[in-house]
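Input sequence (289 aa), recorded before submission:
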Amino acid sequence: MAAQKEFFCYDSLVLFDQNPMQRLFATSEDSARSFADKFLAQRALIVGAGGLGTPLALLLARMNVGHIVIVDDDRVETSNLGRQWAFSAQDLGESKASLLATMLQQMHGAQKVEALHERVLSHNVRNLMRDCDVVFDCVDNIQTKLRLHDAALALGKTFVYGATSGWNGASALIHAQTRKDPDRGCLRCVFEGEALRQSTRPCALIGTMPAHTMHIASSMVNLWVQDCVLGIPFDGDDGVNRDIQSLQNRYHFFDLRNLKIRKVPLQATRDCIACGPNAFVRGDEPRVL
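Predicted structure, token format:
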């Protein structure tokens, strides 16, 4: 009979012998501490507290991410209730960011959760993400998506993109060091203009299901966990590293009707205004062609 693995509790925050997720990584006291420390040290910025942002925030909270900042200037409307399952009819008219932050604090009192009821604009986008480690894009406004994407690249922040519309969805992780690697592209390199616009049509207009938003939110978190927690280097020297490395800087398109996934490498273009050698550096307003 194979010896049973032992798992350890760290500061009473995560009980490793009861959490299947930790069993992927923690096989000793040292690895358990390292695993928990990495999450506790992370500061995640979630922009958008709607269909994607709500399940994503709850997933991060369950993983004991130490500092979560939620940004959204919307208030709960009746049309939100079908797909944004963190809210109820009693919440109508209330700030989505504040409600979601309160829910997370009740789940895990040891975490620091902030709610910012404001819109992301060109004059505040860099200040919002300056102290964060990762930016989760959970909005369905194309201008805001590009604004977040470009600012994250300029500041060297990991950017995790997500979108869902109808039976389709997409996610991508743009590594923090993308601008330093001439072989790795960003979303603008491939999906500038109409192509990106079509991939991010508002789900409020096209329609979607709560299961779809949870699926895409889970894929976004999964991309980030493999990049941040496992710490896979770009120049991995073994098969496992190279396999996980392939998830970075790729556009993952989900056909949720037929349960198919297609990966599109984000090939760098030298004239890209976000990651190319002549990329803007002053936080200029992004172009939407």
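Checked by second reader. Residues 227 and 241 are 10 Å apart (CA to CA).
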